[in-house]
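FORM 7B - TANDEM STRUCTURE REPORT

SECTION 1: FIRST PROTEIN
SEQUENCE AND TOKENS:
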Amino acid sequence: MSILRTLAVASAIAVSAYITPPRAAAQSPSYATHGDATLAAFINEALEGNPRVRAALLETRAAESRTAQAATLPDPVLSFTQHMLGPQTRVGPQFSSVSVTQSLPWFGTLSDRRAIAAAAAAMQSESYQEQRAEVVRQVKLAYYDLAYFDEALRITGEEEQLLLHYEALARARYSQGFGQQQEVVKLQAGVTRVLNRRQELLRQRTDFEALLNVLADRPVNTPVPPVTIGELPAVALDDEQLHATGLGERPEVRSARLRIERDEHGVSLARRRYRPGLAVGVAWGNVLGRRDDPGRENPPPGNGRDTWSLTLGASLPVFRGSYDAGVREAAARVSAAEEAYRDAVNGVALAVRSTAFRIMTIEGQLALFERALLPQAEQALRATEEAYSGGVTGVLELLDSEEMLLNVRLGLARLRADYMKALAEMERAIGSPFPEEEGS
């Protein structure tokens, strides 16, 4: 009883280990975090907990298990024959027989099947890597959008305080007889406008917070602390180098190459159908001793001796039209795989080119905002504040200058987030960390 219990426990452990989704194997990261520990934690959590990543990993394990199955011979066939009226022989009647037959595919068939299964498993492994890369991309995009909304909320909060300060100044001017009540009302409307914008920003932030939680397989309402973008990493954009990296590292390209390899083995396997399949068997026959009167009186030599026999067989590949069609099908699959590879290569070229141009464009816009637009908007607001305090200009000019500075600051925050998102898109395009981090 203890032996049965031990076997049952061992079986349960084995089954549990098989059906429990394993964690991702330790490997060097294929993504950059730019020293952002919070982002790195989100990515690690997503890669370990995201259901799509875990499902892809389990599919990879399943595909790897099919390789051993493909290289296995068919099960031998065991046959038992019981003679109702056994045939008579010189040494006695045959009573029953047992035979074992083993089918043997033509030489090289099993190796082709193994190669096809191995290539399919490698393709599934690339699909797993593709799913990981896509989840990393989605986490980064949501994370940097969240960073933008947090920065926008901070900016609009400061803008609200500034407008409240202007409102207090307008009230003081009105109480001293230098201003009009209409100025106070317009400034209050400006405060209301900023408050409305903050509410819209909060709504959008909630959406991206929920998305980030879903990607990491966390409760959708889990609070995410404010996110900030540090110093923007500098990048070197070499289209040829980036394209070469993408051809070597992007999972879709590697998977396309493996598909060609798999289908080429499929052509080889289809051609082997023209060859016969073999079969070998051995049989044992149970022979009873002679029971007739002559046999009892004078038993023959070897009376009741059992029989042994060896069987060799081969299938007859006569339906050549079917085999021809199979070869044409396999060849067409190779051609389709080659076209899919070309498409994957073109996809890398397109993604690298468009993303590189986007990065360069954002770099130019950032320089324009930081070196010209932002200083100009700040200077214009200071000049308008002084003019308003001196009664030279009105509240409308003050509100215009304030809104212009607000839009410039929000635009700069949006560009910073878009720059980091573009780096994430380039990383996905080439299948390698971008830009490369020190020590990686």
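SECTION 2: SECOND PROTEIN
SEQUENCE AND TOKENS:
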Amino acid sequence: MARAFDEEAPHPGGESLQEKCGVLGVRVRGADVARIAYFGLYALQHRGQESAGIAVGDGHTIVCHREMGLIGAIFNEQILSRLTGYVACGHTRYSTTGSSLVVNAQPLLEPSPWGDFALAHNGNLTNVDRLRALLPLESRFQDESDSEVMARLLAREPGDDIVARIRGLMPRLEGSYSIVLTTADQLIAFRDPWGIRPLCLGRLGEGWIVASESCALGTVGAELVREIEPGEIVCIDDAGIRSVHSAVARKPAFCVFEYIYFARPDSIMADSSIYTARHAMGRRLAEEQPADADVVMAVPDSAVPGGIGYAERSGLPYVEGLIKNRYIGRTFISPDPGMRARGVKLKFNALAENLRGKRVVVVDDSIVRGTTTRNIVKLVREAGATEVHIRITSPPMIHPCFLGVDTASYDELIAANQSVEEIRAHIVADSLGYLSLAGLLASTGRPANDFCTGCLTGHYPEVIADDVEGDGRIVSRPEPALSAGRSSI
């Protein structure tokens, strides 16, 4: 018997999944690195729209500017002109826990006995409470986030240089972290031993750049070199570039939702095109979940390659069915109750001329709570569709994420509480079909055992081993924040 599902239950992230942030670093002598970081962060804006910041080092000091809001609203010519130097790191943030205050914005500027440094973090530490206990009681936190705990511990870590200190700290960090760090002179990037969150390295003229996604490299004219490897520390200074691996070796556990939803389609990850992977998901979905229909459409934007792939494989024509208002979700002005009640109509308008009198396949990337999907079905029907068949380019999401993604609790995840047929009835679709896990993994072009699929299978990587049974399943059903306190990433 399915639990009655409350489609109006509040959830801070809404129906859509939210990635917590994007990070970027650049070191180029003689270049305007603040401006490079600014345009690079623009390309990563999809990874976070809550706050952003840039820190720049000139060899002697680090200057940082960070605010709430979008990149374009935070920085102007006057501010960028004050950020002078040749090494920079930047951050754009989406948070799911903790307050939306500028104190939570990054990069964090941290003093230390060996010099100031700025740190930008993408991920989620799952043992932050234990890490916080390692700090002196008199330590005072500005935001008490896992990012600040990491920065404070690094400031106190012994070692001959920054790489040795990071290498000494990494075995104590559990969870996901892709870090870009600058001293006044150096650019450092390091990634957790599981490689959960993305991070890549590029060449920019005579200098170097690191970023969450390769799309940021292309925006500033850089050339993608490779991914930062799991457990790798890359240090860039006047002596050149050097790479050191941490002493902790782990089984890879890259977040599969980067391929499903988070990453921009023009990004490359592990020599694999995100667009090509999503297109392949759609083709495989058409094979596994065919529909007797007239046209195929996709929910913009991340599902579009999958929709095109579904149409190609099924032989059905592809049409635009929804036009997305790309800015409505990036405002800090809340709609009034009447507008809020209109739900998905704030975000989408239907093209009735493409849908009227048609049996329509609607391709989307995921269903989290079901609210948005139900509203999309309603919108497509109101536009005149005679039938609506929902097809999803991922398996049902039945578990929360504990490693840096805003999904929802078990109570909020519709697939954790209802069968596929019950979900179909809830969203009032004529049919509902999901892509299989095997089909999803095969579509990525990467080895199947490279991924974390915890939200789809309940089998999490050893990164959260303290909280799971021997078979990899969660012992209890904690909230997604786990022990992470108030995360600012």
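SECTION 3: OBSERVATIONS ON SECOND PROTEIN
The first helix runs from residue 33 to 43.
The chain has a mean pLDDT of 87.

SECTION 4: SIGNATURE
Preparer initials: ____
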